[in-house]
Specification:
Layout (H helix, E strand, L loop, with lengths): L2 E4 L30 E4 L10 H7 L4 E7 L1 H14 L3 E10 L3 E3 L2 E3 L1 H16 L1 E3 L1 H7 L3
Parallel strand pairs: 1-2, 3-4, 4-7
Antiparallel strand pairs: 5-6
Helix pairs in contact: 2-3
Length: 139
């Protein structure tokens, strides 16, 4: 397994500040001793990182994506992975979204999440629940 950790590149980071709880990988999915971690500074996990090189060196042709935020990092990483030719699975109930606003329209987090998952599922990814991903993987 390979993990991606996000840090904002500036000291005025709103959340993913270096060495802060916001940039830490949650204990429930903490990498094991031999699992590599890619540090990213943009929403797209492939941009300005060695993620693709690492995946290609391992012979990976399928990626499973989960995390936060659905409308930013999940969306960007899934689309990039698909564009690079990987088979992409997004684990929808292991992703999170925040409410958004646009031109006076407030969009609740569950609607943001559902919209992103629907868009990804239409072309870029297979969108599955955690239970189905575990069952399909034989775990």
């Amino acid at each position: 397994m390979l993990h991606v950790r996000h840090e904002f590149p500036t000291p005025d980071a709103p959340f993913f500040a270096a060495n802060s709880p916001g940039a830490a990988i949650h204990d429930s999915v903490r990498p094991q001793a031999n699992e590599p971690v890619v540090l990213k500074r943009k929403a797209n996990s492939f941009r300005d990182t060695d993620l693709k090189d690492r995946l290609d060196a391992l012979g990976v042709n399928r990626v499973v994506i989960c995390g936060a935020m659905s409308q930013m990092c999940i969306d960007a990483a899934a689309r990039a992975a698909a564009d690079f030719g990987y088979a992409v699975t997004v684990v929808h109930d292991a992703c999170a979204a925040r409410p958004q606003s646009f031109e006076g329209v407030d969009v609740p987090a569950d609607h943001v999440h559902a919209t992103v998952m629907a868009a990804l599922g239409a072309f870029y990814a297979t969108v599955r629940a955690t239970e189905n991903v575990w069952t399909e993987s034989g775990r």
